[in-house]
């Protein structure tokens, strides 16, 4: 029985982190939950044990551990919290060594990664853009082109763009770079993301939910003026280098986040079946979820699989039909991750944190620096994630940057995946989690904030606030 004293059955499609978090919260709120997973529970928030090593699905850092939605939801609903280790810094590897990625004014002015002339241009331009404001669809490329920056600086911005949005700098909005660096709070941008998608009722919903005065004020001013008005505080973040959020990596790999939820679930029924149809049963005022094995009647649907497949699954649901063109055109990118194991004494990444490479863009991290049990004794386990690259290109990059021939290492494992169901790129459509009173969408295509797991958790937070009819947690 939920808090309204009503017996409600919820069908959750997909058992990744967004489906599992939804199941946990709704179960604890008194709903009867059945969750469908067509493949492996945990989705991308999962680790695999292979030949004595334990690899995650992709290289991970968990964002916003101090004040983010994942921790808030777990604190409220799970029996315990995963044990997060502090993440460390982000570095860039160049011919002349490993350097901390500059974020603050001071770091930019002293970084050895770009020529002196570029340091002045980049810092002046950053302050300029924040003071003068910029439009929502201004790209990173638009901001840096014509400044006469060296090739290394341009490649740096291209690489950072890939990791923040999944796309290159021409397709990455400038606001994403500034929110990612921690200068601009995401809540200042959020109202504009949904407002532009005319069919999403986000504007009015946000006004009701997230600090009504502030959102109303922001929306009435428009994007450009909001940035201009916020410039003083954004610039002060840039100058001070103060960060909004902390990052970490869980002991036991990212599987331990999924395990924490699985161990806290009590009554949720998990069906390892692929959902192939969702139909409305008008007579019963409910939905029939059809799988390849059976059909199930539920009162509420929470869809956590990629929403671009929804129009094909929920063909007869009017609210989905209205969104069809938007959902089918959601843009996403694919990643390739190479994991390899080597002797610890030959580990080139003996530090906490991770590094990026710029040619081609890549992100590398040694996860045994956080938890030695993820590899056999005396071995180090390194993962390198690439965007849209072939195995051959990835191996060549690893050889070039780390001087390691991965095909001759102790352990080699390659993964392909779609890191986020919607790239955070210019012109992207994000569906609002509430489609109707009884149909919800969660996952990384239902919220543009932060990254992967945190982003998925944000969407669950909003979905819950709608179902439970209260402000976000
Ligand atoms: C290379 C790489 C690097 C990453 N780095 C980070 C990082 O640093 N930080 C971070 O937070 N995140 C990162 N992520 C992303 C993060 O792991 C995911 O965004 C997040 O786990 C997605 O969760 P989800 O539940 O929304 O989707 P998913 O995990 O994709 O779950 C969806 C589930 O639905 C199931 N499903 C699909 N269709 C059906 C159907 N018809 N019926 C039943 N089930 C279905 C799928 O099998 C899947 O299990 C990374 C991912 C990759 C690949």
TrEMBL record:
SUPFAM superfamilies the UniProt entry points to: FAD/NAD(P)-binding domain
Coiled coil: none
Pfam families: NAD_binding_8 (PF13450)
Gene3D superfamilies, sorted: FAD/NAD(P)-binding domain
Protein name: Phytoene dehydrogenase and related protein-like protein
């Amino acid at each position: 029985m939920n808090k309204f004293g009503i017996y409600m059955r919820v069908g959750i499609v997909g058992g990744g982190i967004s489906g599992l978090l939804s199941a946990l919260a709704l179960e604890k709120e008194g709903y009867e939950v059945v969750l469908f997973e067509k493949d492996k529970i945990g989705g991308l928030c999962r680790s695999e044990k292979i030949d004595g090593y334990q690899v995650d699905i992709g290289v991970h850092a968990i964002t916003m551990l101090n004040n983010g939605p994942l921790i808030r939801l777990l604190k409220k609903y799970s029996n315990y919290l995963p044990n997060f280790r502090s993440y460390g810094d982000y570095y860039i590897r160049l011919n002349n060594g490993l350097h901390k990625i500059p974020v603050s004014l001071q770091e930019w002015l002293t970084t050895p990664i770009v020529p002196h002339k570029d340091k002045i241009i980049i810092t002046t331009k950053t302050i300029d853009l924040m003071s003068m404001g910029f439009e929502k669809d201004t790209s990173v490329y638009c901001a840096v082109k014509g400044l006469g920056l060296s090739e290394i600086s341009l490649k740096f911005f291209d690489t950072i763009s890939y990791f923040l949005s999944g796309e290159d700098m021409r397709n990455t909005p400038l606001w994403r770079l500034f929110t990612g660096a921690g200068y601009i709070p995401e809540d200042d941008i959020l109202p504009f993301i949904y407002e532009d998608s005319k069919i999403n009722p986000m504007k009015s919903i946000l006004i009701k939910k997230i600090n009504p005065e502030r959102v109303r004020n922001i929306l009435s001013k428009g994007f450009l003026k909001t940035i201009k008005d916020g410039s003083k505080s954004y610039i002060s973040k840039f100058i001070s280098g103060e960060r909004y959020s902390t990052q970490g990596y869980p002991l036991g790999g990212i599987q331990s986040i999924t395990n924490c939820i699985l161990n806290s679930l009590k009554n949720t029924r998990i069906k390892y079946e692929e959902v192939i149809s969702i139909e409305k049963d008008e007579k019963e005022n409910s939905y029939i979820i059809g799988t390849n094995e059976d059909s199930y009647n539920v009162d509420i649907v929470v869809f956590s699989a990629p929403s671009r497949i929804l129009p094909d699954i929920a063909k007869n649901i009017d609210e989905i039909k209205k969104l069809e063109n938007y959902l089918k055109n959601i843009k996403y990118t694919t990643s390739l991750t190479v994991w390899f194991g080597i002797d610890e004494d030959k580990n080139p990444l003996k530090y906490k944190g991770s590094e990026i490479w710029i040619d081609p863009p890549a992100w590398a991290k040694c996860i045994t620096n956080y938890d030695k049990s993820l590899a056999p004794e005396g071995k180090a386990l390194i993962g390198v994630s690439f965007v849209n690259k072939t195995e051959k290109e990835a191996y060549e990059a690893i050889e070039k940057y780390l001087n390691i021939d991965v095909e001759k290492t102790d352990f080699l494992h390659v993964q392909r995946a779609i890191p986020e169901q919607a790239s955070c790129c210019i012109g992207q459509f994000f569906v609002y989690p509430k489609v109707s009173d009884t149909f919800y969408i969660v996952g990384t295509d239902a919220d543009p904030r932060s990254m992967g797991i945190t982003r998925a958790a944000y969407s669950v937070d909003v979905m819950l606030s709608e179902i439970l009819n209260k402000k976000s947690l």
